[in-house]
Specification:
Elements: E1 4-8, H1 13-23, E2 35-39, H2 42-49, E3 54-57, H3 63-72, E4 75-80, H4 87-104, E5 109-113, E6 130-131, H5 136-142, H6 148-163, E7 166-172, E8 174-176, H7 189-200, E9 204-205, E10 211-216, H8 217-232, E11 244-247, E12 250-253, H9 254-267, E13 277-278, H10 282-289, H11 293-300, E14 306-307, H12 310-313, H13 322-327, H14 329-339, H15 346-353
Parallel strand pairs: 1-2, 1-4, 2-3, 4-5, 5-7, 6-14, 7-11, 8-10, 9-13
Antiparallel strand pairs: 10-12
Length: 354
Amino acid sequence: MGSNILITGAAGYIGGSLVADFLAGNSPLIKKDQIHAVVRSDEQAQALSKLGVHVLQLDLTDEDAVVESLLRHNISIVVHTASSLDVSLALPLVAALGRQREVSGEDTYFIHTSGLSAFYERTGWPSGPMKDSGPVFKTERQFTDSYPLRKTDVTVIEHAKDRGVTSFIVVPSTVYGKGSGAWNQLSVILPIYIKGCISNKSVHKFPENAKVSGVHVSDLTALYTKIIEKVLQKETLPSGTEGYYFALAHDILWWDILDPLAEALHARGLVTESKAQIWPNVETAAESLGIPVPYVQILWNSEANLVTENTYKLGWKPQWNTERFLQHLDDEIEAVQELGTAKSSLVASLSQST
C-alpha cells in the first residue's frame, strides 16, 4: 500500500507522541514520508514543521475541505486523536475516507480514539465484565443516549460502515508518562490532579478506593502502531462493530497512587501534609480540580470491569506495569513542574457537554 497516514490532534499529547514515534522510525513498515499531521494554529504548524513532517492546517468540521485535502495527499489511514467527544470532527474524516476509497479503489481505515469513561457504571454502563471481543457495540448502542462518548463511538462506527470505511475504536485507560510530541507532552488525568494538589497545598482522595486501569503513553502509541502495521500488511482484523481495542496495560488502586503522591509532594515542599485527606464532598473536589461536578467522580473515582482480548491478539506487549508506574510516580510531578498545564481541550469539551 503506497498511501499515506493522517494523524489528527498531532499537536496533542497522544497524537504528538504518535507522530514522534513514526518520525523516529520505530516501525520498519511506516515511513516518515507517509506521515501527515493535522493541527489548528500557525504556532502548532511551525512546531511540527521543524520535525520534517507534512503538516496540514484544517478545520475538521469543513467536510469539503477535508475531502479535498485527503484526496490531494492520498490519505487512506486516519488516526483520530483530536477529540473523543466531538463527533463533528470525526464524521468529515470518515466521509473523506469513503470518497478516497471510491477514487482509488483501495480500502481505507479510520482509527478512532474513545475513552474509558464510556464503560463506567457511573455513566450508565451495565455492571459485569466486558471483553473488547464481546458485544461492546451492541451494548454501547443500547445505552448510547445516556453518555455522549458512547454516542460518538456508535455514530462513528455506523457512519464508517455506510461509507465503506474500515473502522477501529481504541479505548485508552488512564494514560500517564511524559509525551514525546513537539507541542504538548503532558497527559491530562494525573497532571490535573497534581496541579490541584499543589494549588490547594494538600492531597485529597475519595472515601472509596476505586481500581483504575493504566497505560504508559509509549505503550499506547505502540498499540496504534500495531494496528497500522497489520493494516499495511493487509491482515484481517476485527473491525467495525467488532473492532474495539482496550488499551489496558495494568491495574492501579487510586489510594496506591494518592498516598505516595502526598508523600512525594510533601518532600518537595509543595503540600503541607504527607498524607492524603478525604474529600468532604464532590463540589469541593470539582472546584479544586477545575472540572465540572458531573465529571469529577467519573474521571477520578470510577472503575471499569473490562477485559482485553483483541488488543493482546495483535501481539501488543506493554512495557510498563503497576510496579514500574509506582516507582516512577515522581516523574509525573516533575513533568507538571516542568511543563505546567496540559495543552488539552478535554476540560473545555467536558464543560460544553454539561
